[in-house]
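S1.2 Input.
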Amino acid sequence: MIGYGVDYSGAKIHESTAKPGMEQPIKYWVPSIAPSGMAFYTGTLFPKWRGSLFTGALVGQMLVRLSLDGDKVTGEERLLQNLNERIRDVRQGPDGALWLLTDASAGRILRVAPAGK
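S1.3 Output.
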């Protein structure tokens, strides 16, 4: 097994980050943001985000938008960091809004849309 992860102590979890015959990840974070939930954005409410990949972050406590060009990640935007909540899941609603689920003890369902929409 290969990987880029490290234990909470800082120790390596895997013996190597590469081996013959094994694919490299398209995107990874060190230290891990603990990605959770993911949605490919196809909506029209956020035209500039169309074709982006969104993932929640448990440890990172944010929403991450990855810009894509085919199977390559070309950019990363970290959103909603001021919420200070673990984002458990990300979904696109039928109207193009993003719906987020937080996992605090009083977890919330949040709708992300442009102002006034």
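S1.4 Remarks. The chain has a mean pLDDT of 91.
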